[in-house]
Amino acid sequence: MRLSRTTKYLLLAALVLGLAVIYFPLLVVLLNSFNADTTFGWPPSSFTLEWWGRAAENQGALNALWTSVQAGLAATAIALVLGTMAAFALQRYRFFGRNQVSLLIILPIALPGIVTGIALNNAFRTILGINLGLFTAIVAHATFCIVVVFNNVVARLRRMGGNLEEASMDLGADGLTTFRLVTFPMLRSALLAGGLLAFALSFDEIIVTTFTLGTGLETLPIWILNNLFRPNQAPIVNVVAAVLILASTVPVYLAQRLSGDTTSGGRL
Questions:
Q1: What Cα–Cα distance (Å) separates residue 36 from each residue in 31, 54, 96, 247?
Q2: How far apart are CA 258 and CA 66, in angstroms?
Q3: How far is CA 58 from CA 54, 235, 244, in A?
């Protein structure tokens, strides 16, 4: 299909406008983290690293960062195990209700976060009698992190087919040996990509976390929200937000590279 010159310019303008709407506010946050003016006058008259030094010494931000890392790593580990098992069960076997089970696995990421948060809060406190804390937040994060891992593994299993695994077993390898030497190496990049995306998703989550983390604990996004409008905290919040942007971008970029690599075993 050939496009006219006018159509090309209009599409290019729409693309530039869309990217500007998305990324210009992020650029402002990054620049303000170096802005020497506490009122964030624009454009910045001078730059400083003072706020980065203060952020590195801010115990509240450091505690929130550690809580986010713990929750993200634990939720990712759970998602890798359960998401991979679910993907194998639904891709390798045929059984009654298979499509319905697949829908139930994917549904948590499609539900509004506030609905998921309220439902899990009620389940933990009222039905199960569990006090809210880091454990409940990890379980809550795992419910939607599983979806990311599941989708990545299912997509890779569909591309792989079963010929190599059947050939391995025809040559005398048992199921465990076939998985270790044939299946897992081909799945490795998909698992890594799914794990990176799951960690990024958990690390940034705020709505479900608000309902399931309980009092006395803060993740980094919650810390940012709680300190955003406090006096003299805005410069440090900008630094933490900048770190959060970078911490979210790197896993997503690596996951995109790994997910798109189907011929080299996921090597960058």
A1: 10, 13, 63, 24
A2: 27
A3: 6, 12, 15
Instruction: Annotate 127-156 with three-state secondary structure.
Output: HCCCCCCHHHHHHHHHHHHHHHHHHHHHHH
* Residues 3-52: tens digit of each pLDDT: 777 888 898 999 999 989 988 888 888 888 888 777 666 777 788 888 88
Alpha carbon distances (Å) from 204 to 141, 219, 248, 268? 10, 9, 7, 25
Fill in the amino acid letter for 95.
F
In total, the chain counts a number of residues equal to: 268
pLDDT one-digit tens code per residue, 149-174: 999 898 888 887 777 777 877 777 77
Tell me the C-alpha distance between 70 and 117, whole Å. 19
Could you tell me the CA-to-CA distances from 15 to 2, 10, 11 in Å, in that order?
Answer: 18, 9, 6
CA proximity to 140, closest of 205, 81, 216, 70:
205
Tens digits of residue pLDDT in 98-107: 888 888 888 8
Torsion of CA 210, 215, 216, 221, to 10 degrees: 10
Alpha helices in the chain (DSSP H): 5-32, 50-57, 59-92, 98-110, 113-122, 134-160, 163-170, 175-178, 184-204, 207-212, 220-227, 234-259
Structure tokens that stand for 115 in this block: 């609905």
